[in-house]
Every structure is written in C-alpha cells, then in structure tokens.
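Example 3.
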Amino acid sequence: MSDEKAVSIPQQSGGTQAKDAGADGEILLKVTGLQKHFPIRKGLLQRQTGAVRAVDGIDFEVRKGETLGVVGESGCGKSTMGRLITRLLEPTAGTVEFEGRDITHLSTGALRPMRRDVQMIFQDPYSSLNPRHTIGTIVSAPFRLQGVTPEGGVKKEVQRLLSVVGLNPEHYNRYPHEFSGGQRQRIGIARALALNPKLVVADEPVSALDVSIQAQVVNLLDDLQEELGLTYVIIAHDLSVVRHVSDRIAVMYLGKIVELADRNALYKAPMHPYTKALLSAVPIPDPKRRKVKSERILLKGDVPSPISPPSGCRFHTRCWKATQICRTTEPPLLELRPGQRVACHHPENSEDQAPQDTELLTEARQAAAELGKSSDTSSDK
Amino acid sequence: MSKLEKAALGEPAPLAQSDADDVFLSVRDLRIHFDTDDGLVKSVDGVSFDVARGRTLGIVGESGSGKSVTSLGVMGLHRSARAKVSGEVWLDGQELIGAHPDEVRRLRGRKMAMIFQDPLSAMHPYYTVGHQIVEAYRVHHDVSKKIAKQRAVEMLDRVGIPEPGKRVDSYPHEFSGGMRQRAMIAMALVNNPELLIADEPTTALDVTVQAQILDLIRDLQKEFGSAVIMITHDLGVVAEMADDLLVMYGGRCVERGPAEAVFSEPRHPYTWGLLGSMPRLDRDETDRLIPVKGQPPSLINLPPGCAFNPRCPYADIPKDDVTRTVRPELTEVGSRHWAACHMSQEQRERIWTEEIAPKL
Ligand SMILES: Nc1ncnc2c1ncn2[C@@H]1O[C@H](COP(=O)(O)OP(=O)(O)OP(=O)(O)O)[C@@H](O)[C@H]1O
Ligand SMILES: Nc1ncnc2c1ncn2[C@@H]1O[C@H](COP(=O)(O)OP(=O)(O)OP(=O)(O)O)[C@@H](O)[C@H]1O
Ligand code: SF4
Ligand code: SF4
Ligand SMILES: [Mg+2]
Ligand SMILES: [Mg+2]
C-alpha cells in the first residue's frame, strides 16, 4: 500500500516489513529476452519437426539480497529458466547479465570462477547425486573443485553443513540410495551452500520435505540471507512456501512471465487472472472444509502445449475474461501499479487495458458461467 | 481367508476398525532394518495398520521417519541382502512377507501398484515414457502394442500431459519434473490397481494439476473400490483425501485415527509440532514458521524411552522420568484414535486446548 506514490522515487519503500531488505539493492542478475527452444526430432534422420518453446522471451532482474519467487504450472519452463540463468543450458536467444557482465556466451573455462558464485539446487535430487559416491564425498566436492580449504578442515565443515540441514553425522558414509527423499533434497542444499555463493537458484528446494523440516530449511535460507547477504531465486509451485520466503514473485505461464510483483501486492490483489486462479486452488488443511470446494477456480480445458502455444494471450483458452483482443494480440508486461507488472488486457484489481473489447469468447463465457455456479454454492457456508 | 482371520484374531488390540469395513490390506508389526557399516538402521520398527477397500489411509511424518521404507516393504521391494524384513503383510487374504518373491511380483502392477517418490529412479532413462507405460500394461493385459499404446496416450492425457500423442515418444529427461511425476502416476494407474500406494504423488505438481490427480485417484476408488495409501507431507492433501491418518516418528507410529479426530484433537506432542509448522494461505502469515525444535533422531541409536523425548517440550511432565526410560505404547485416546505418549489424557487435553490450539 505504501507504494501508491512511489512511482518515480525508487528509494521509497515502506520500511514496515523486514522482507523489503533487498528491494532497493543493486541489480545482481538481469535477464533480457531470454528464450530456450528444444528441438523435437523424428525418424531415422532425426529431422527437426518442431520445437518445445520452454522459455519464450522473458525479462526480469534480481536485486542483491532479495528473494525472487518463481511459480507456475508444471511444464511452464521454470526449471529451464533456472538452468539458463545458471548457464547450465545455452539460451536460444536473449542475454543473461551477472553483476553487470554479459555471461550469455561465456565458455566453460571462463565460467568457472562464476560457478562458485552461482549455485543451483536441483529439482530432482536423486539424479543430481552420484550414486557411487558417499554423501561426505558429494558435499565436499565443491571444496575440491574450487581448491578451497575451509577453516577446521573439509570433513568438519561438511559435517557442520549436514547438521545445518538436519542430517546426522552417521549419514556421512552413506550412499544416495540409502537416504529418504527429503534427506536427498537436503544433501543438494548442503552442497549448494558449501562455498557461500552469491546467488542460489533453488528449484523446488523444499517440495520433498515435511512441514517441520521445510520450516527449518526456510528459516536457514532466511538466516543465511541475513548473515551473508545471499540472493535467491526460488522456484516452487507451493504458493504458501513462496509467499513465506519471497520479496517479489514472478508468475510464469507457458514460457512467459505473466505477472511480476511484490509479494504482498500479489497475494492481496493479484491482477492476472491466472495468478488469481493459482491462489484460489490451494487446498486448505482442515478436513471440516473438505466439502467446501466452491471457492476454487479450477481451470478448465487442457493445458496448452508449449509446442504450439495459443495465439495472442497464451492464457486465452482457459481464461474466463478472454475477449477477441486476447486471441489476437499478445498483452505486453506493463507496470500497472508501482512494483506490479502484468501482461493482461483485462486485469483484475486494476483498470481494464482494453475496455472497448467487451464480448467474451465462447470458451470464456462457459468458464465464467461455471465460476458463477460454484460461487453460488459458496455463499451458504 | 482363514489365515487372515487367524491373523486378525491373534492381533492383540488397537487395530481392528470398529466399523468393520472390508479390510483389504493389513500390516502387522512390520520391521525393516538395514545393516550398515555404522550399525543397524531401524528404519521401520513395529508398525501396524489396516486399509479397507475404497478407503484412504494418509501417512504423515518427518522426513526420514520410515514412510517410504514402509511402503516399499508392503510392495516387497526390499531385496538387498542388507535389508532385514519381519512382520506380516496381508493383502486380500494373502501373506506377502513369507511369500515367494515371484508370487509377490505377480501381484505388483494389478493387485497393488505404487507411485514412487522419485520418478527418475523409477523410470528407465533409455526407453521412452510411452514404451514404459505400454510394457507395464502388457504385463497384465494380453493386447497388441498398438492398443497398449492407445491406452498409454489415454493415460498421459488423463494426468494432464498436453499433446500426449506427441509426448508419448519423449524420453524421461525431456519431461519437466512434474511431467515425469505424472508419467509415473499414469504408469501406476494403467492397470487400475486394487491397492494404490502413492508416495508423495503431488510434490512436484502445482495446485491445479494436483487437484486433477487427486480426482483421478478418487475416480479409481469409486470405480474399482481400490484401497489407497497416501504418503504426503502436504497436510492440505491429507485433509482432503484421507479417511484415516497415521503419524510416524522415528520408524514408529505415534498417533493414528480418523483424519478428522487427528486434525481436530491431536493427542501427541509431535503431531502438535507438525500442525504448528505448517505454512497456510488461509491464515495470517506469521513471520517465521515454527519448526519442531532439534534434529531428527538417529535411527541407529534411537533415544531410549520415547524417541521424541529430546525434542519434546513436555518430556518432564510424566513422573519419574518415565519418558526417557520406557517406550510409550499406543493407547486409545478416543474412538478408533490412538496415541503413544506417557502424559495422561487430561494433561494432553489441557495442553492442547490451552496452549497449542489457540496458537494454530
Ligand atoms: N531436454 C529437453 N528436451 C526437450 N524438451 C524439454 C527438455 N527439458 C525440458 N523440456 C520441455 O520444456 C518444457 C518446460 O520444462 P521445465 O522443466 O522447464 O518445466 P517446469 O516449469 O520446471 O515444470 P515442473 O514444475 O513440472 O518441474 C516442458 O514441456 C518440457 O517437456
Ligand atoms: N538402504 C538403506 N540403508 C540404510 N538406511 C536407509 C536405507 N533406506 C532408507 N534408510 C533410512 O531409513 C530412514 C527412513 O527412510 P524413508 O525413505 O522411509 O523416509 P521417509 O519417511 O520416506 O522420508 P521422506 O519424507 O524424506 O521421504 C531414513 O532415515 C533413511 O536414511
Ligand atoms: S483477460 Fe485476456 S489477456 Fe487477460 S489473461 Fe485473460 S485472456 Fe489473457
Ligand atoms: S512420551 Fe514424553 S517425550 Fe514422548 S511425546 Fe509424550 S511427553 Fe513427549
Ligand atoms: Mg521443474
Ligand atoms: Mg519418502
């Protein structure tokens, strides 16, 4: 709320929440027009017959000391984006700048010093852990690769890291297959934090963890941020976790960012219909409310394919507000309120960007009707 | 049949479900220990439960508490020489721990199927997703490859993979994390199993797809009367799906009962901690989550007495330090509701209503 008049004064941000820490910081990572298309090949000759447009032109920046949360449906390109900004994948187009330096096309050798500063926690812990190495070896690998000896020796430091993420010393000599799912996830976290990186891209860092250890890890990430000024990009589909850790949140849909906003604005007054749907669909942990499903906006229709995304606004095939212009014209990502960028012709909680275009598409009318039906039933609770 | 009855009679107490549904899976005193260089890891140490046809048992508990090891045990998948498995697993009247591995293998897929926590480890990297679903189907159905492939595409469609006809020929590494998880769900459901064990089936999925998957599991239950075990740390999912709930800590069951009762009147301090550390959207955000203090226990040297005692804020309430010397057994705390704690019923009721519940 405090940002209503902050349009031209970037320094101004209500000092009311601790989480604002990074909001004014300098830019650590900047991404422009980033794209990744994976070719689809068929037949003996492996001819290219199409492409998965996993990331299809996104722009954002991450400021020093802040946490940017990235949410979006499965398959919308979050992990691909993470791999692009850590330079584990080569972009099809666009640029990635880290600390003001263009790192888009650096060679492996030139990237090595940066590897220390930028770490990734992988979504699939099992496949990122070498099955033939013990956990001690895996977590100490970054020290060996970068030729660093921590105070007190490598083994001691590794054991400290393990205990910080809630693992026992008795785990030191064990192999990845001898761990539970959540323990493996924490091994990845310990490894990523070993060298005190500047930027950590965490792909679903707590999805396999129970709530209690989730809380422990989330608090740990918080503490490290405070102590060392770490910057995070946290990819998660769990909106309650993202709200908890993020300063700003980017919502992705089919390879695009559709909304990018300060945390509070996003949760209090989401502007993109897709964001609103995502927020409404979170199950509520209370069995008494099991029957009350009505407040949910369950998106109807198939998730479109990133091989042939819909024209105009990519969300128009499932949106209950879609009109003709949505089908023909792609809405640009515009700052409709300070700190809140949205790509939509008819945003929620904001002025209509295409008020002349009022006739709903047929699918939208159906979707809107279903929403209407379900909100009727919700009134009797 | 008679064997099952005998087992049910021989079982001393807490398990028989009073509303005597048609029990499909019955697990008795299951123990799974692993020999390691550092000592014997007691991953599962005397767990018992029942699941009836058409019902869902939710299993929750700390990471590393033995949930996956328990379910792999039911599936008969601990084959390494280092794994020591004992106890009884009765599936539709047939005991599986003592059964021949070939016999158990025959049951997998159709009679019981599992959605594994780690999709990549459950899928073969060198075969396409479609090929793997086709093979899973053809083990139990004598049909042509073409028909099986149609079925694979249909299943991928039902789990929400866009353009399944094009994606069926992709390799697992070409799928996103959530797509792999859904491919595995498709594989587990392709034969309409009578018992489905879903180990964190929706961890990688956003809420919309999650809802779709949960609906799919409900459909399976409705159509085929399948029994379901749902392992998850997402209490929202548990609240929505589970009829009964089992809370694990350190390889044992610390609380079990109807889901509503365990949510509204939990009677074990660990369960309280679990509920307290949950981020939720429907309530105001507190600045920090409150985790259960301390580290998870070593499963090689479990703390004596109650395994939760080093982390339990109430460990000094029971007299004579009994909490640190005697292991609490499950006792009845409500209708079909059991908890393992030395505190008296009154003490627990008081702490829950006065100290814990108001803060949640
Ligand atoms: N190596 C690859 N080859 C071909 N397609 C790929 C490859 N990696 C990713 N894709 C495709 O790109 C799209 C985006 O995948 P990505 O892993 O980025 O999704 P995500 O947002 O991380 O999803 P999830 O939440 O399920 O992990 C998907 O359609 C996926 O199948
Ligand atoms: N092959 C093995 N050898 C030794 N220890 C093992 C082995 N497999 C599992 N364990 C240990 O057994 C315990 C229980 O593991 P399990 O995978 O059942 O945990 P979980 O409850 O499923 O946890 P999560 O929620 O993290 O998946 C863990 O502490 C794990 O380290
Ligand atoms: S209103 Fe139009 S532009 Fe906005 S999300 Fe819906 S379809 Fe897209
Ligand atoms: S037995 Fe003692 S330590 Fe265990 S939960 Fe009860 S009070 Fe806490
Ligand atoms: Mg991903
Ligand atoms: Mg597990």
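Residues 207-224 of chain B form the longest helix (18 residues). Chain B has two domains: 1-14+22-111+193-360, 128-192.
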